[in-house]
Amino acid sequence: MIEAEKIKLNEKILKGLRGFHKGLVEHGIIFRSKIKNQTFQETIEKELDDMDRFQKEIHRIKDPEIRDLTMALTEYACAFYKLVEKKGVENYKEVIEFLDKAYSNMDKALLKESEETRELTEALMRYIDCFNKLVEKKGISKYKETIDFVNRFYFEMDNKYYSELEGKPDDMRQLAEYLNEISRTSE
Prior knowledge:
The protein is an all-alpha fold. Helix content is 78%, strand content 0%. The radius of gyration is 16 Å and the shape is globular. It starts with 10 loop residues before the first helix and ends with a helix.
């Protein structure tokens, strides 16, 4: 297991994680449940199934740093959904507050509270490591461009899936192949 004390999360990182967590619940679960007329549980199960299917296609992403970063992001999102599922979607604000407190203090006792929290922390560590490798590859002097690219990459990934591919045969294969097109634009 990766030791939690190796990460130092500053306020910008914590703010980004808060926004990501909030978006996963408010858009990924609550909003999608309403538009699909599903329960929160059904939506979480669908999201977890989609990400599991996507993880099986990530090998199609040619750029190794982008591939690893994308895998780490999906692992983190899955672990977060499992934690929210366990604690209850109606309690998501408390879950986010708990994670914010735990991450800001890197309180190992809090983070080891459950398997889902351990899984989440380990996925976060992998994501940070993968992101740092991408920044190193692109050059530290281009870190802002790298951040902009990663944000656009994730936006395009979600947009392509939910607006065009969801429910189609081979949707996840097509998504992974589409991500190669986006990845090439950053070179």
